[in-house]
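Subject: sequence -> structure tokens, single chain

Hey, anyone have a minute? Need the predicted structure for the following. Not urgent.
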Amino acid sequence: MYRIHIMVSGKVQRVWFRKQTQTKALELGLTGWVKNFFSYAVEIIAEGSMDSLTELTGWLQDGPPLAKVKKLSIEWFPSKNEFNSFEIVK
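Reply:
Had a minute. Here:
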């Protein structure tokens, strides 16, 4: 099990980015959270298998249809197993 910390910037707010990220993460069996970070960024912490996390990062390169992702920053860590679900943090 692994953990990733992701920062996504671009047109990623007001385009259902957090909700669709949550949907994708749950589909992949991941746990963690997603939240708006500042005006043009979203922050994500996700835990799960390397394959599922890799698939999520691939999806995040484009994001939902209305998003315009400009930059994706990803850091990998060992899992801390601290989450039970994947939530949207306000």
